[in-house]
Design brief:
The complex is a heterodimer of chains A (212) and B (164). Chain A has 212 residues and is α+β, with helices and mostly antiparallel strands. Helix content of chain A is 44%, strand content 26%. Chain B is of the alpha+beta class and 164 residues long. A five-stranded mixed beta sheet of chain B has the order 1-3-8-9-10, with no helix packed on it. The chains are: A alpha+beta (212), B alpha+beta (164). At the A-B interface, helix 1, helix 3, strand 3, strand 6 and helix 6 of A face strand 3 of B.
Chain lengths: 212, 164
Amino acid sequence: MQMKTEFNISDMHLDVLKEIGNIGAAHAATSLSELLQRKIDMHVPKVALVSFDDMFELAGGSENVVVGIFLRIEGDLSGSMFFVLPIDSANRFIRRLIGDPHFDFSNPESIGEIGISAMQELGNILSGSYLSALSDFTGLKIFPTVPSLSVDMVGAIVSFGLIEVSHYSDEVIVIDTKIVEEDENDKSVDGHFFLLPDPPSYMTIFKSLGVM
Amino acid sequence: MEMVKTVVRVGIADMNIVREPDTIRTSGLGSCVGVVLYDERRKVAGMVHVMLPDSSLGKGDSINVAKFADTGIYSLMEQLKAEGVRPMSLKAKIAGGSQMFQFGSSDTVRIGPRNVEAVKKELARLSIPLIAEDTGGSNGRTIEFDPAIGTLQVRTVNAGTKGI
């Protein structure tokens, strides 16, 4: 299968993918807001065809240490999904959820089972809301794997989700939605949802929404 | 004359070559493997950041040789030869090949160990001795090689930096 010769990606295709990011992340942001009892804002999704190195830049830079939740999607649609959080934001979320002000992802000794489970559950709920919204919107059957957690360098985490794509190409279509916590003084980005469909699924998405 | 040190960066599925006093670096290796080929005497080194074990896995209409263990190492050796390095004098150091996550399609889960196996196989085929390795586990690595001293610095999030 040769993704480049199959079709040219038009603005219309990009709009469809943006809409997927919009709907998915809006549901996920609502779930996060309910969990944390805080107002969560979502940025307008960015959709782009980027090199793998640029993909790492979007997630904070290859060597930057982040908390990453990763899952694979199978079914009518296949791809990878990440929820990537800076350490500070992940700490803030988990401290609130488990009521432990000393919890710290950057200190391995302070990371107990409860904190890990809470982060995994957070990943479960957010990706579940994102993907069920995506499934409702497209009418496609989507089966996510259980999300897995890693605290490590962006490159090490995100490259794992690029393995499938790398069989076809050196570039990837990424649907990137940022979320920020509204009450925080610091308006820096709290997290990113990245949806990376495998190249054979591009057509499936467009067909499901009547855009060829 | 003062020599200015430059750090040459190698991206994912990318390769490059340096001479003393410059160093060469790639960051955020997970399941990927960083392969360094170097000539101790001439103080020249090349690095390739390998993503997949074998070029037969490529499904695109063109292939990026640096992405695969077989074509990447071979092509790096050819580039070093063009720089006047004799293949007989080349040595190798490698790092990476982690199993970052425990699920995915069966081929993908073990991609790290498979990359390491494929790298070793290609080095053996080209008769390039493997001098040191820091491979496996489930953590990311950033590596930097200094051709002046032949040391590969390996940095991880939890274990700091060590030289191999």
